[in-house]
Amino acid sequence: MNEKLTMAKALNRGLRRALQADPKVLLAGEDIGKLGGVFRITEGLQAEFGENRVVDSPLAESGIIGTAVGLCMRGYRPVVEIQFDGFVFPGFAQIVSQVAKMHMRTGGRQKMPMVIRIPFGGGIGAVEHHSESPEAYFAHTPGLKVVSCANPNDAYWMIQQAIGSDDPVVFLEPKRRYQQKGEVNFTDRPAPMHQASIVRHGSDATLLAYGPMVKTCLDAAAVAAEEGTDLEVVDLRTISPIDWVTVISSVRRTRRAIVVHEAPLTLGLGAEIAAKLTEELFYVMESPVLRVAGFDMPYPPARVESEYLPSVDRILDTVDTSLAY
Amino acid sequence: MRGQSVEMVQLLTPDGERVANDDFEFTGSADDLAGYLRDMILARRFDAEATALQRHGELGLWTPLIGQEAAQVGSAHALRAADVCFPSYREHAVAMVLGVPLSNLLGLFRGTDGGHWELLEKFKNYQIVIGCQALHATGYAMGIQLDGAVGNADPDQNAAAIVYHGDGAASQGDVNEAYVFAASYNAPVVFFCQNNQWAISEPIALQSRIPLFQRAQGFGFPGIQVDGNDVLAVKAVTDWAMERARHGDGPTFIEAYTYRMGAHTTSDDPTKYRESSDEEAWRGRDPILRLATYLRNLGAVDDAWLAAVEDEAKSLGADVRATIAQLKDVTMDELFETVYAEPTVALESQRREYAAYLAGEDA
Ligand SMILES: Cc1ncc(C[n+]2csc(CCOP(=O)(O)OP(=O)(O)O)c2C)c(N)n1
User: Which residues form the Transketolase-like pyrimidine-binding domain (chain A) (predicted)?
Assistant: First the structure.
């Protein structure tokens, strides 16, 4: 059974299905009940499942995550919503010191099956602190898993997979893609959450992206195709752990790689991917791994964000550089 | 004493005299009290042994509890089978009363493992990040409530959480957020604050201008101050607070007014920041001495009884020393295995690389 849905609706359906499937799943966060969340991702869920399953939290991020730690200890599977990327930092200490470490500290006795949903990234003309890309902080923290969906089908399935995981998952939702529609296949068994996917096949170079930049890369590949350049696009889907098998096998074929992310360049995901590809494919590649990223500055005011964000043109420019080696 | 309120609950004076309180009564027997005395003596010995072990280089650090035995033993005895305890890092006597193997506590401070404890479902592993466990306890208590395990007619079906934090911790955001969450959801949690007057070198005056227990009112639940060196009063007050929580009446804040007689940890030197006269004054309020005096006068314990407990303490000391030799270091393999519940290909490959490196070294 297929249906065309926005990513926002697909997430809502996925959450609903998770709530139906397991009575231990509960949602918590600011304004997620009656309002349905500021992005309406949880719309209607409190009415359907009640105030004990869809819980409006006091305005305290550390409190939301720290109490979810306690709920995990009591056998629940909390899914918490952080209202915007820039507001996760008051809860950062609980995530990196408690959520991430509890399993190893207790010798595997205490699981932390928690999902931390964060609408992330720019491109919506928001006011400051509402458009950040904090993924590297979390991906650099052992014990956490970090994923990002890039289309409605993944949104629907990955949120359920994240909730089903016995590990804590930071679930990054590309907010500028919430209203993008796509086909959701409700019946076919999806790929595992930690598997990257080749969303466009090509032979000249591989574009590697996740979340909001997957669409931008597909747009770039479409333009490149008109100019006769055949680009492959890999949607990482999982940021930690990275699915190296898919990434390396793609780049082994195309022998050129460009990583694209919105987060600042230095020490971003692109750095890790470039290092790994260099270790694995040093003698195979025709050119160094190149990166198209945000700049090393705090996220800019909305009127200039389009200059900060990787664009189709910047990507194509970098593709040209890669091909010129 | 500074910050002390006139309403502080006390049932046994520092001289070992029983006093009445309008609201609280100790309902246990003299035998119970003898048991508490024994617990406190053994806890003090365990603590002294561990401190000595740190001096001998066997432990990386130790957090002495001396002076706080009554606060811990009295509150621990108020817990029932279904209740769950969230300690900070000095609750050795609570752990002992609940039956946590001492090897677990020693292992953490020796660095053989990170809190791989045996009774985790009852007594959570120690928390070093100040105050974070207040939220864990509150979330756990919210879970108890969701499970319908409060307010049942059958008391065995009810449970509550208790969390231990210090006076310094009361300044932390997490602790204050925990108070907010606990109040908003009426969670069955008891905040047991041991006000031992010091947060490393910082006096209570730097954390609060009012007695801590008065803060609870601002959050919307009862706060009460109890003489933390009086095991009878601590037991009575904690019984009341835990029963309120189990009954569905929500959170309570208990300020156990006490004193840390030793150093904050084996790394600091209290003579740098506090007056010895202060310590002398508190020595006169010793929790063990006062209970021993009372029970002696009552005829419930005598020299022979005390000598027997002293023997027990000696053999506990020997056990503690012997335990050190038996503690096993966690292996790198176990660590690789427990980072995630569901292993990742990337980490498995690091594990294999490390194994290959070791094998190469042996060859
Ligand atoms: C978040 C955090 N900040 C600082 C420290 C370092 N530290 C360890 S114990 C301590 C003092 C705590 O005082 P209090 O809460 O009164 O507890 P006590 O040790 O007196 O029982 C400090 C500052 C820490 N462990 N965690």
Answer: 5-180
